[in-house]
Specification:
The chain is of the alpha+beta class. Helices cover about 30% and strands about 10% of the residues. It has helices spanning about 1-15, 60-65, 80-85, 100-110, 130-135, 140-155, 190-200; strands at about 160, 185, 205-210, 215-220, 225-230. It is elongated and about 185 Å long.
Length: about 230
């Protein structure tokens, strides 16, 4: 645009007439003629080169930027205390007292059926008399301790014989343990088998003997032996 303006201004200056007395003119023969370029009235100037596109300035670029899109607000987390406070209060139902039903349950139970008692076989208890008590007092401590162990396990026994001064073993003539208060003959009744088995397993410091055709048991302290259904006494 600037170059076209300058060209038009130069053409106008060349076409303007010179003022009078300003100097020699072209009609003066003494004046050398100079070449003057006068543009034709309808002449068109050659087209100028297209303008070079200029980069937009910072302000132009800033103005060309589109408006930013609307930013949606970010939801904020509500504190737990506020959320709990915003909850409606729970309406708890009123507790209705119920009548006691235990007596009703007990009344509805059937009557217990009691079983008839099972008859127990009669157990013959050994006789206890003054003679039996008297026979115990003469025993030596070891023999008395043995009798106490037996009665603690099976109950009181009926004493047949204990101390017999001068007693001897039949068939041998040797002094019997009864002569020294270290032997006991007693009747166990129906418990005889159980007592004999217990003595064999537990009486290790003396003898255990039963007699053929007799119901009583002989025990003594001293040398250990076992004789069942013997035909002689000790």
């Amino acid at each position: 645009m600037r170059s076209s303006f300058l060209g038009a201004a130069a053409a106008a200056l060349l076409a303007a007439p010179s003022p009078a007395g300003a100097g020699p003119t072209s009609d003066d023969p003494a004046t050398p003629q100079s070449l003057r370029i006068v543009p034709a009235p309808d002449a068109k100037l050659p087209p100028l080169a297209p303008p070079v596109p200029q980069l937009a300035t910072h302000r132009a670029r800033a103005g060309a930027v589109t408006e930013p899109a609307e930013v949606l607000p970010v939801p904020q987390l509500v504190p737990r205390a506020q959320r709990l406070a915003a909850l409606p209060e729970l309406q708890l139902p009123l507790l209705v007292p119920q009548p006691a039903i235990r007596p009703q349950r007990l009344a509805a139970l059937p009557e217990p059926q009691l079983l008839p008692p099972v008859p127990q076989p009669a157990v013959r208890r050994p006789r206890r008399d003054s003679r039996s008590d008297r026979l115990r007092t003469c025993l030596k401590p070891a023999a008395r301790a043995l009798l106490d162990r037996i009665e603690a396990e099976f109950g009181r026994m009926e004493i047949i014989s204990t101390c017999r001064p001068g007693a001897r073993i039949a068939g041998t003539g040797r002094i019997s343990k009864h002569a020294t208060g270290e032997a006991i003959d007693f009747n166990a009744g129906r418990r005889k088998g159980d007592v004999v088995r217990w003595l064999i397993a537990n009486h290790k410091t003396g003898g255990t003997m039963t007699y053929a055709g007799m119901s009583h048991i002989h025990v003594d302290v001293g040398h250990r032996f076992v004789a069942l259904n013997a035909h002689g006494g000790r």
